[in-house]
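Preliminary data (for renewal application), 1,3-dihydroxyacetonephosphate complex.
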Amino acid sequence: MKQHVPLIVGNWKMNPATVGAAKKLFLAIRKALGRKRLNVHIAVAPPFPFLSELERLSPSQRISLAAQDVFFEAIGAHTGEVSLPMLKSVGVTAVIVGHSERRARGESDHEIYEDVSTLFKSNVTGIICVGENERDDSGNFYSVVEAQLRSALRGVPKTKLKQLVIAYEPVWAIGTGAVATPEDVHEMKLFIQKILTDHFGRAGAEKVRVIYGGSVKKKNAAALLEEGQVDGFLIGGASLKAKEFVSIINIAHEYEKTSV
Ligand code: 13P
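Predicted structure:
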């Protein structure tokens, strides 16, 4: 049985190039969404400099604003970092933590744990990314995901599980077009839920959304929801095309409507 309204997050990464183009993309998404009431939670995560401009374009909060990262300290001499109070002050309600593109640039499990600990002292949603670099025949990738997850979960109190989202993003599927099969995604979802249950108990684990990211497109979205049984998506490339992004949102809405 499904527990959650689907969550669809567009991770714009380091795109587009200018604030003008960001506003244009945001407005195009808003327009493509139309007026229909959708049973889907929608968020976009633009680059930091565009957040406050986009906040002004989203007075109804139909599209929530997410950040692509956060630094665990609140203020001070930390050149180049952005804190949670700063993000909250420009309307951010969710933050992506531990994306593989940041891990690849040296972000460690410990730093991710620190960011998570700060985030879960607030009421902001935390989208924690986990995922293996590659798959092997002997299933070692499960232990990679488990280690990333267990380290981050130490920073999440049991009282805040409704604001916890785990994004399973296998690195080999990001930006490559090589999407994981719905069966693989389902197996990993069950594995993640097992670890969550271990950590928080069954009732706690059921509060947590598990979403998928990695070459999600409108052509594979339905199967990933139906067979993969994920609670939503973290979308890179396809979130930069308003129509494609909104098609995926509509697919999630239809799925939510028809399934029990
Ligand atoms: P793509 O959808 O471009 O594969 O990116 C996935 C991702 O990394 C989202 O965070």
